[in-house]
Amino acid sequence: MRPVAEHGLLVDYGDRFDRAIWARLIDLDARLSSETVPGFVEAVPAATSLLVRFDPMTTDHAKVGAALLVLLAVPPGEEQRHTRAHVVDVCYDGTLAPDLVEVATRCGMSTEDVVSAHLNSECHVQMYGFAPGYAYLAGLPAPLHLPRKTAAKRDVPKGSVLIAGQQCLVSTLTMPTGWWIIGRSPTAILTGDETRPFLFDVGDRVTFRRISRDDYDRCLT
């Protein structure tokens, strides 16, 4: 554990993502509350760490750290985070998937094999970062693992379905990216609801459903 300013502790699980370790991190996140950690404000999960924010007027690093050690000593799985399943529509056609052919070439696959592998993947929401609603989805199958591009592309439309390494995401804003663009989705990730601004919660499961270009266009009208 490492102090973060006067109001936080970073629980660090290492420097490399591991699904089993991440599950323990999410388990700890699910256990946290003002009852278990007096002065608790919020927790922010990432791929290999959990930031625990607290009210420095009511508690301090030592007390929060002691409470966290108690929680960490409890075997995982006794309290399960409630997760939801989501289906994200994707169109893989033409100009909506400008990198699909190159991804197929680099992976030694046909474009249909790339699409099939993506459709058969089950991802989970690992964390949020970089931009509003920018959910990093872990679980891309190994045949699709590619390093990021050496240079970013500007003005990539929102809704673009991007892959890099073992992660996938759906962009929520027009922005630059160095990830590979294999499709576009009309599924709204930003909900407009102040109480639940993003479609996903960390830990939720995400699968993908193929739609035609006509269906994609109809979703936008």
UniProtKB/TrEMBL annotation:
SMART domains: AHS1
Domain Carboxyltransferase, first and last residues per copy: 1-200
Alphabetic keyword roster: ATP-binding, Hydrolase, Nucleotide-binding
Pfam short name (any one): CT_C_D
Signal sequence bounds: none
Gene3D superfamilies reported in the protein's UniProt record: 3.30.1360.40, Cyclophilin-like
Entries under InterPro entries matching the protein: CT_C_D, Cyclophilin-like_dom_sf, PxpB
One GO MF term: hydrolase activity
PANTHER family: 5-OXOPROLINASE SUBUNIT B (PTHR34698:SF2)
Name of the molecule in the record: Allophanate hydrolase subunit 1
Organism of this sequence: Arenibacterium halophilum
